[in-house]
Amino acid sequence: MSWSLRLATIRGINLKVHVTFAFIVFLAAANWASLGPAGMAFGVGLVLLLFACVTLHEFGHALAAQYYGIPVKEIVLLPIGGIAFLGRATRNPVQELVIAAAGPAVNVAIVALLLPVLWLVGDPVDLTPALLRPEGATPSLAVALHWLVGANISLVLFNMIPAFPLDGGRILRGLLGLWTDWSRATRIASGAGQGIAMAMGTWGLLSGQIMLLVMAALIFFSASAAAADERGHAVLATQRVGEACNRHAIVLGESERISTVIGYLLTSYQPDFAVVRGTALLGIVRRSQVLEALALRSGDIPVSAIMIDCPRVDATHSLAEVRQVLTEAASPVAAVFDSRAFLGLVSLDDIDEAETVLHFVNAGSPSKPGAQARSSLRPAEA
To answer: For residue 336, is it left (φ>0), alpha (ψ between -120 and 50) or beta?
Structure first.
């Protein structure tokens, strides 16, 4: 995520903090400013401890995902909480349940560890985790423990609301996925998320709670995006990549000079060029690489000197599967093979365009949308 600073790398996961996090630190200091520098430091310490708990919550999700072989790109801390960015989404209901539940389970464990300490301190547990300083409270271990226990309980209760994409909504989708197909489970969970978000937004509007309005908007649009993504996945799952890749794109011989590619750049919008030796694919050259080489006056070197590798997929894979491969590999293009024969390249832009076409084809086709879509995208025979 842009505007984020890396704090550490743990188990290959970049832990980052967004620059807007400074706002919550400022707010915490301001809430305790009446007690002087010591009070301000205490307020900042509280919010840092809270976000340490949020970080552990997100690592609960991340480590559970890694257990199932799902890569985790990064964890970003924001004023509204944390986000773990997974390399791909799971479509396995059991995995969804475990990954979603792992975060709140961490907060439950934190509460279980803190409660005995509170008992030793001997003060009653205050379960009001407001960032605002409780009236008459002074910095102390008891206040900090009370506040952290309440904050972690609040994190569990809020995240367990069955409003997708909150953890509770994902758990709902996982449970639904045990007895129905994934697309239907996603539609139901997303619909529940949108409904709860509208209720939250209405309450926030009537009560004047701006933060609740913001959270409601985020939940509503995230749930809507999840539903749209699932519709796209369902459409792309009907189309084999071998029937949608560009088999007539310009290819480059390994000894061709970069300067000769200028003509191709001027006469086509092709972003990627396959580099071949006979019929064998050696790698690809991206349009941006050619422009960079020309800027460095390296037009006389062969294209093979700057070519890079890309994911390779079988022609029988669906476009939905290829999109997942490209997302996980952080690559914009894949090479398509029929057995060992190179057929052509397919990019994320190609897949997005195919999704748009297939939506229109399916909307106008009363039967067998998958077969209709395949014939509509099949490239012309040479």
So the answer is: beta
Q: Indicate whether 275 belongs to any domain.
A: yes
Asked if pLDDT for residue 176 goes beyond 60, the answer is yes
Beta strands in the chain (DSSP E): 4-10, 13-18, 72-78, 81-86, 251-253, 272-277, 280-286, 312-314, 333-338, 341-347
CATH number assigned to the domain comprising residue 340: 3.10.580.10
Provide the domain limits for residue 282: 241-377
What's the rounded mean pLDDT across residues 33-40? 84
**Distance (Å, rounded) from C-alpha 358 to C-alpha 280?**
31
> What CA–CA distance (Å, rounded) separates 315 from 322?
10
Torsion, CA 307, CA 322, CA 218, CA 224, rounded to 10: 140
Residues 349, 368, single domain; the answer is: yes
Res. 365 pLDDT band, cuts 50 70 90: low
Cα Rg of the chain (Å, integer) = 26
Cα(182)–Cα(147) distance, integer angstroms: 39
Question: How many domains does the chain divide into?
Answer: 2
In a domain, 347, yes or no: yes
Name 8's bridge partners: 15
pLDDT tens track for 147-166? 888 899 999 999 999 999 99
DSSP, collapsed to helix, strand or coil, labels residue 4 as strand
